[in-house]
Design a protein that fits this description.
With 383 residues, this protein is α/β, with parallel strands linked by helices. The chain folds into 2 domains: 160 residues, Rossmann fold (3-Layer(aba) Sandwich); 136 residues, no CATH class. The chain is 51% helix and 8% strand. The chain has a 5-stranded parallel sheet, sandwiched between helices. Strand 2 and strand 3 form a beta hairpin. Helix 11 crosses helix 12. The longest helix has 26 residues.
């Protein structure tokens, strides 16, 4: 069975946020700088893309009483595939080389490393140019919380002296990683999780059966991007091995946690190896179902970043299991344990993406999770 394409630009869980942005557009109060924050795979890019289309579309329409992009014109199409001259997107780099000719842009699904100052300067230089076609220009920084301090400082002038018609979108998982001077100049729109009912309704269009949809929804835990990825995996697995049992990533993460609970602190090293293997397996699966935007040859320079990103995939799923345990025990004495563990997982993910020693960070994390301690990770790992 092949998967049917899902409806595009579906803002699962974000209808109220979209309504506020659409009303601002209708009244002419378009934010010069927009900050969209929230957990990975919850729809930040989908919301940003649709709003960029609205700002740039020459013939917007009305949808449920609100302005919306037509989605059919040449401009909307070019914005979608990122070829419109007045729509610029900047993402983390896989390669650390200075020469722009050798830059390798991270695929959308990949959590890249720090956004360096030369990218911020390139962004600032482009921001000073007037729109080429229409009255507006939109520039986006994906994973803006990956900017180091120097890059953020370099962008301040862009925020303080914006060109007429320019709109800047910053997308990030954790807005607290941005300097207060950046956050204070943005209209901050934090995004939350979508409901299971919304995601279930959305996945019906794939043609998957009820069992597959239920598995994908449970694995997603409110994250539409994860639901899409999981339903693709389920259908791909069914096509390859008819009748073979399929284990979702949520089930694998839950099994990992059960083993973690029964282990002693000396077993942390074994869990690090297992986490690396699971992350690599999930990364390869995502490549095979077509969710990556670049090929293996193009990613050759970024092998170390691939490892970090695959570990981030694993930690996202483990965090989802911890979050569910925390919610299920919120009124009991165990709530502190699960919330502390969730906090440790999030910090470790952030440290690893900021070039900490991956194996050492995981060793310390699993040691803490096994012992139930809530100590802060050593600064030598966070560097």
């Amino acid at each position: 069975m092949s998967a049917h394409p899902l409806p595009e630009n579906r803002l699962l869980g974000h209808s109220a946020r979209w309504a506020a942005l659409a009303r601002a557009f209708a009244s002419g109060n378009i934010p010069q700088s927009l900050l969209l924050s929230g957990p990975p795979q919850i729809g930040k890019w989908t919301l940003a893309l649709r709003y960029a289309q609205l700002l740039l579309c020459p013939s917007p329409i009305e949808d449920n009483g609100l302005p919306a992009p037509c989605g059919q014109c040449k401009v909307c199409h070019q914005v979608k595939i990122e070829t419109f001259p007045d729509f610029k997107v900047y993402r983390p780099l896989v390669s650390s080389v200075e020469d722009e000719r050798d830059w390798v842009i991270a695929p959308k699904m990949m959590s890249g490393s720090i956004l360096p100052i030369h990218v911020a300067r390139k962004f600032g230089n482009e921001a000073m140019r007037k729109p080429l076609i229409g009255p507006r220009k939109v520039m986006v920084i994906v994973q803006a919380d990956r900017m180091n301090d120097e890059a953020q400082n370099a962008l301040l002038k862009t925020f303080e002296e914006p060109v007429s018609g320019l709109s800047i979108f910053l997308l990030c998982d954790n807005a607290d990683q941005l300097r207060p001077t950046i956050r204070s100049r943005c209209w901050h729109v934090p995004l939350g999780l979508a409901s299971d009912d919304e995601i279930t309704d959305w996945l019906q269009a794939t043609g998957a059966d009820a069992t597959q949809i239920d598995q994908a929804v449970r694995t997603a835990a409110g994250r539409p991007g994860v639901a899409k990825r999981e339903i693709e995996r389920l259908i791909a697995a069914q096509n390859e091995e008819e009748g073979q049992p399929f284990v979702s990533r949520q089930q694998q993460a839950e099994a990992f946690l059960r083993r973690l609970e029964k282990s002693s602190p000396v077993g942390a090293l074994g869990f690090t190896e297992e986490a690396l293997l699971l992350g690599k397996q999930w990364w390869d699966e995502d490549q095979s179902v077509g969710t990556a935007t670049t090929g293996k040859k193009e990613l050759k320079k970024g092998d170390a970043k691939v490892v970090r990103s695959s570990v981030a995939l694993f930690l996202d799923e483990l965090a989802s299991v911890y979050r569910a345990r925390w919610i299920g025990n919120v009124t009991s004495s165990k709530a502190v344990r699960w919330s502390d563990g969730l906090d440790q997982i999030r910090k470790t993910r952030q440290y690893i993406l900021r070039n900490a020693n991956t194996n050492l960070a995981l060793d310390v994390l699993f040691g803490h999770l096994i012992s139930g301690q809530s100590q802060r990770l050593p600064e030598r790992i966070a560097r």
